[in-house]
Specification:
Helix 1 packs antiparallel against helix 3 and helix 4 packs antiparallel against helix 5. Helix content is 88%, strand content 0%. It is mainly alpha-helical.
Amino acid sequence: MWKADVVDLNLTRFYEMSTRVVLSFLILSILLAIVAGVGCTVYDLRLIFQTDFHAAFKTIMVDMLTVLAIIEVLRTALAYFSEGRVKVTYIIDTVIVTVLTEVMAFWYKSIRWEEVAMTISLVISLSLVRVMAVRYSPAAIRKEL
């Protein structure tokens, strides 16, 4: 009986250690993606002098918002690394930032009203889920007890 417990403990340790190693590589690759994104954004600043302001600022703004979305993904990975679980609020924040990046890109292209309505409903739905996740989080429930 005690041998099964030892094997389970060893498997659990192996799983946790291998997950930490893989997650460390993931965090490193996310950091490299952020550095590359910042580099691309700085490089795209040249467009201000080469093209019209409208197109240049669109490109720079989308680049910056994409980097912010990647930062939210990094925040999610770091939360898992430190707490051993993924927080729903971090994932929702990542999706909201990504959707808002697309909304900002809508300003510069012609889209149908159905797409705008779907995007607005998605943002409202995500916001409501975000509020519910904060309100009914395990930490908030523990504080009430």
